[in-house]
Protein backbone atom coordinates (compact mmCIF):
# COMPACT_ATOMS: atom_id res chain seq x y z
CA UNK A 1 0.00 0.00 0.00
CA UNK A 2 1.47 3.34 -1.01
CA UNK A 3 0.80 5.05 2.25
CA UNK A 4 3.14 7.88 1.40
CA UNK A 5 0.93 9.02 -1.44
CA UNK A 6 -2.26 8.95 0.48
CA UNK A 7 -1.92 12.10 2.50
CA UNK A 8 -1.32 14.42 -0.42
CA UNK A 9 -4.95 15.42 -0.43
CA UNK A 10 -5.07 16.63 3.15
CA UNK A 11 -4.85 20.38 2.91
CA UNK A 12 -3.33 22.79 5.39
CA UNK A 13 -6.79 23.95 6.44
CA UNK A 14 -7.64 20.36 7.37
CA UNK A 15 -4.49 20.09 9.45
CA UNK A 16 -5.34 23.30 11.31
CA UNK A 17 -8.89 22.14 11.92
CA UNK A 18 -7.73 18.69 13.05
CA UNK A 19 -5.20 20.18 15.42
CA UNK A 20 -7.66 22.56 17.05
CA UNK A 21 -10.14 19.72 17.51
CA UNK A 22 -7.57 17.36 19.00
CA UNK A 23 -6.27 20.10 21.35
CA UNK A 24 -9.83 20.81 22.48
CA UNK A 25 -10.67 17.12 23.03
CA UNK A 26 -7.37 16.51 24.80
CA UNK A 27 -7.90 19.46 27.14
CA UNK A 28 -11.42 18.29 27.86
CA UNK A 29 -10.28 14.73 28.58
CA UNK A 30 -7.64 16.07 30.97
CA UNK A 31 -10.15 18.31 32.73
CA UNK A 32 -12.64 15.45 33.01
CA UNK A 33 -9.92 13.34 34.62
CA UNK A 34 -9.24 16.12 37.10
CA UNK A 35 -5.80 16.78 35.70
CA UNK A 36 -4.25 20.22 35.74
CA UNK A 37 -1.06 19.31 33.89
CA UNK A 38 -0.83 19.90 30.17
CA UNK A 39 -0.83 16.87 27.90
CA UNK A 40 1.73 17.20 25.10
CA UNK A 41 0.58 16.53 21.57
CA UNK A 42 3.21 14.90 19.38
CA UNK A 43 2.86 15.07 15.61
CA UNK A 44 3.78 11.67 14.16
CA UNK A 45 5.42 12.46 10.84
CA UNK A 46 5.72 9.14 9.02
CA UNK A 47 4.93 9.51 5.32
CA UNK A 48 4.09 13.21 5.80
CA UNK A 49 5.83 15.81 3.64
CA UNK A 50 8.10 18.24 5.55
CA UNK A 51 5.99 21.25 4.45
CA UNK A 52 3.00 19.78 6.24
CA UNK A 53 5.05 18.90 9.28
CA UNK A 54 6.31 22.47 9.39
CA UNK A 55 2.80 23.81 9.07
CA UNK A 56 1.87 21.77 12.16
CA UNK A 57 4.87 23.22 13.98
CA UNK A 58 3.64 26.64 13.00
CA UNK A 59 0.32 25.87 14.67
CA UNK A 60 2.11 25.38 17.96
CA UNK A 61 3.04 21.69 17.95
CA UNK A 62 6.58 21.60 19.27
CA UNK A 63 7.16 17.85 19.33
CA UNK A 64 7.68 15.49 16.38
CA UNK A 65 7.67 11.69 16.49
CA UNK A 66 9.81 9.71 14.05
CA UNK A 67 9.30 6.02 13.23
CA UNK A 68 11.82 5.23 10.57
CA UNK A 69 15.51 6.01 10.72
CA UNK A 70 16.08 6.50 7.00
CA UNK A 71 12.96 8.59 6.46
CA UNK A 72 13.95 10.78 9.40
CA UNK A 73 17.49 11.29 8.10
CA UNK A 74 16.11 12.21 4.68
CA UNK A 75 13.63 14.75 6.06
CA UNK A 76 15.23 16.28 9.13
CA UNK A 77 17.13 19.04 7.35
CA UNK A 78 13.86 20.37 6.00
CA UNK A 79 12.12 20.54 9.38
CA UNK A 80 11.42 23.75 11.25
CA UNK A 81 12.95 23.78 14.75
CA UNK A 82 11.07 21.39 17.04
CA UNK A 83 11.88 18.74 19.58
CA UNK A 84 12.18 15.29 17.98
CA UNK A 85 11.60 11.91 19.62
CA UNK A 86 12.18 8.49 18.10
CA UNK A 87 9.10 6.27 18.52
CA UNK A 88 9.54 3.41 16.05
CA UNK A 89 11.06 -0.02 16.37
CA UNK A 90 14.81 0.48 16.61
CA UNK A 91 17.47 -2.01 15.58
CA UNK A 92 20.68 -1.82 17.59
CA UNK A 93 22.74 -1.20 14.46
CA UNK A 94 20.71 1.97 13.73
CA UNK A 95 21.19 3.62 17.11
CA UNK A 96 24.32 5.38 15.93
CA UNK A 97 22.41 7.31 13.26
CA UNK A 98 19.93 8.93 15.64
CA UNK A 99 21.70 9.13 18.99
CA UNK A 100 22.66 12.80 18.61
CA UNK A 101 19.54 13.85 16.67
CA UNK A 102 16.64 13.06 19.01
CA UNK A 103 15.99 13.96 22.64
CA UNK A 104 14.00 10.91 23.75
CA UNK A 105 13.75 7.32 22.48
CA UNK A 106 10.32 5.84 23.27
CA UNK A 107 10.84 2.29 22.03
CA UNK A 108 13.40 0.61 24.27
CA UNK A 109 12.31 -2.96 24.92
CA UNK A 110 15.47 -4.92 25.62
CA UNK A 111 18.64 -4.62 27.65
CA UNK A 112 20.62 -5.16 24.48
CA UNK A 113 19.12 -2.06 22.90
CA UNK A 114 19.49 -0.03 26.10
CA UNK A 115 23.17 -1.00 26.32
CA UNK A 116 23.81 0.06 22.73
CA UNK A 117 22.13 3.42 23.40
CA UNK A 118 24.25 3.76 26.53
CA UNK A 119 27.43 3.00 24.59
CA UNK A 120 26.67 5.43 21.78
CA UNK A 121 25.55 8.15 24.20
CA UNK A 122 28.85 7.79 26.07
CA UNK A 123 30.74 8.27 22.80
CA UNK A 124 28.91 11.56 22.30
CA UNK A 125 29.32 12.63 25.91
CA UNK A 126 25.57 12.79 26.47
CA UNK A 127 22.96 11.10 28.63
CA UNK A 128 20.09 9.83 26.47
CA UNK A 129 16.53 9.97 27.80
CA UNK A 130 14.52 6.81 27.09
CA UNK A 131 11.20 5.15 27.77
CA UNK A 132 10.60 1.43 28.20
CA UNK A 133 8.05 0.18 25.67
CA UNK A 134 5.44 -2.21 27.01
CA UNK A 135 3.60 -4.70 24.80
CA UNK A 136 0.40 -4.15 26.72
CA UNK A 137 -1.79 -5.97 24.19
CA UNK A 138 0.47 -9.03 24.36
CA UNK A 139 0.62 -9.08 20.57
CA UNK A 140 3.15 -11.58 19.34
CA UNK A 141 4.47 -9.65 16.36
CA UNK A 142 4.79 -6.33 18.19
CA UNK A 143 7.65 -4.66 19.97
CA UNK A 144 7.70 -4.02 23.69
CA UNK A 145 8.44 -5.98 26.81
CA UNK A 146 5.70 -7.99 28.54
CA UNK A 147 3.96 -6.06 31.31
CA UNK A 148 5.01 -8.51 33.98
CA UNK A 149 8.67 -8.12 33.02
CA UNK A 150 8.60 -4.35 32.63
CA UNK A 151 9.71 -3.22 36.07
CA UNK A 152 12.56 -5.71 36.07
CA UNK A 153 13.83 -4.33 32.76
CA UNK A 154 13.41 -0.75 34.04
CA UNK A 155 15.53 -1.59 37.08
CA UNK A 156 18.28 -3.02 34.87
CA UNK A 157 18.17 -0.05 32.52
CA UNK A 158 18.47 2.38 35.40
CA UNK A 159 21.90 1.00 36.22
CA UNK A 160 23.32 2.34 32.96
CA UNK A 161 25.25 5.59 33.26
CA UNK A 162 24.53 7.22 29.92
CA UNK A 163 20.81 6.64 29.67
CA UNK A 164 18.16 8.14 31.88
CA UNK A 165 14.83 6.37 32.21
CA UNK A 166 11.94 8.83 31.96
CA UNK A 167 8.95 6.47 31.94
CA UNK A 168 6.89 4.13 29.79
CA UNK A 169 5.41 3.93 26.32
CA UNK A 170 2.89 1.61 24.73
CA UNK A 171 0.89 1.06 21.56
CA UNK A 172 -2.31 -0.60 22.72
CA UNK A 173 -3.98 -2.57 19.91
CA UNK A 174 -6.96 -0.87 18.21
CA UNK A 175 -10.15 -1.46 20.09
CA UNK A 176 -8.44 -2.65 23.26
CA UNK A 177 -10.28 -2.17 26.52
CA UNK A 178 -9.67 0.44 29.20
CA UNK A 179 -8.02 -2.29 31.26
CA UNK A 180 -4.86 -2.07 29.17
CA UNK A 181 -4.62 1.68 29.76
CA UNK A 182 -5.31 1.19 33.46
CA UNK A 183 -2.54 -1.41 33.62
CA UNK A 184 -0.12 1.03 32.00
CA UNK A 185 -1.06 3.69 34.52
CA UNK A 186 -0.55 1.22 37.35
CA UNK A 187 2.92 0.26 36.08
CA UNK A 188 3.80 3.94 35.66
CA UNK A 189 2.77 4.73 39.23
CA UNK A 190 4.75 1.74 40.53
CA UNK A 191 7.80 2.90 38.61
CA UNK A 192 7.44 6.40 40.02
CA UNK A 193 7.13 5.05 43.55
CA UNK A 194 10.40 3.16 43.11
CA UNK A 195 12.21 6.17 41.82
CA UNK A 196 15.15 6.18 44.11
CA UNK A 197 17.64 5.43 41.42
CA UNK A 198 20.30 7.72 40.17
CA UNK A 199 19.57 7.40 36.48
CA UNK A 200 15.81 7.67 36.44
CA UNK A 201 13.49 10.61 36.46
CA UNK A 202 10.02 9.23 35.90
CA UNK A 203 7.65 11.80 34.45
CA UNK A 204 6.58 10.57 31.01
CA UNK A 205 3.79 8.19 30.02
CA UNK A 206 3.59 8.00 26.23
CA UNK A 207 0.34 6.42 25.08
CA UNK A 208 -2.69 7.35 23.04
CA UNK A 209 -2.97 7.74 19.27
CA UNK A 210 -5.60 9.19 16.97
CA UNK A 211 -8.20 6.57 17.86
CA UNK A 212 -7.74 6.37 21.61
CA UNK A 213 -6.04 9.49 22.96
CA UNK A 214 -8.94 10.54 25.16
CA UNK A 215 -8.89 7.18 26.95
CA UNK A 216 -5.12 7.42 27.26
CA UNK A 217 -5.40 10.86 28.87
CA UNK A 218 -7.98 9.55 31.29
CA UNK A 219 -5.35 7.05 32.43
CA UNK A 220 -2.53 9.52 32.81
CA UNK A 221 -0.83 9.84 29.41
CA UNK A 222 1.54 12.82 29.36
CA UNK A 223 2.36 12.58 25.64
CA UNK A 224 -0.18 11.54 23.01
CA UNK A 225 1.17 10.56 19.59
CA UNK A 226 -1.05 11.71 16.75
CA UNK A 227 -0.55 10.85 13.09
CA UNK A 228 -3.61 10.19 10.97
CA UNK A 229 -5.92 12.33 13.09
CA UNK A 230 -3.75 15.33 12.32
CA UNK A 231 -2.43 14.72 8.82
CA UNK A 232 -5.38 12.75 7.59
CA UNK A 233 -3.81 9.81 5.85
CA UNK A 234 -6.18 7.38 7.47
CA UNK A 235 -9.05 8.73 5.36
CA UNK A 236 -7.39 7.60 2.15
CA UNK A 237 -6.28 4.09 3.06
C1 LIG B 1 1.85 5.79 13.48
C2 LIG B 1 2.11 5.84 14.93
C3 LIG B 1 1.36 6.65 15.77
C4 LIG B 1 0.20 7.48 15.27
O1 LIG B 1 -0.88 6.67 14.96
P1 LIG B 1 -2.26 7.31 14.42
O2 LIG B 1 -3.26 6.28 14.74
O3 LIG B 1 -2.05 7.54 12.99
O4 LIG B 1 -2.46 8.56 15.19
C5 LIG B 1 1.67 6.67 17.11
N1 LIG B 1 2.69 5.94 17.62
C6 LIG B 1 3.44 5.14 16.85
C7 LIG B 1 4.55 4.36 17.46
C8 LIG B 1 3.17 5.06 15.48
O5 LIG B 1 3.92 4.26 14.71
Keywords:
237 residues, alpha/beta, eight-stranded parallel β-sheet, 9 helices, 19% strand, binds pyridoxal-5'-phosphate
Beta-strand residue percentage: 15-25%
Total number of helices: 9
Q: Which small-molecule ligands are present, each listed once?
A: pyridoxal-5'-phosphate
Largest beta sheet, briefly? 8 strands, parallel
Order of helices and strands: HEHEHEHEHEHEHEHEH
Output the radius of gyration. 17 Å
Counting copies of identical and different chains, the oligomeric state is: single chain
Compute the average pLDDT: 93
Cα shape: globular
- Which stretches of 5+ consecutive residues score pLDDT under 50? 1-6
Number of strands: 8
Structural class: alpha/beta
Give the N-to-C terminal Cα separation: 8 Å
> What is the spatial order of strands in the main beta sheet?
7-6-5-4-3-2-1-8
- Helical fraction equals 25-40%
Amino acid sequence: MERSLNNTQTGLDDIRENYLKIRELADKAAADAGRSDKVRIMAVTKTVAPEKVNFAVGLGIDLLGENRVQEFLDKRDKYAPAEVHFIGGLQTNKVKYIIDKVSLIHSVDSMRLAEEIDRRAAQHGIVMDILTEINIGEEESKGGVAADRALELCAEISKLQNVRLRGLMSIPPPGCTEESFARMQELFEMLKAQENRENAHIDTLSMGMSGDFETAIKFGATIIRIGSGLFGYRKYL
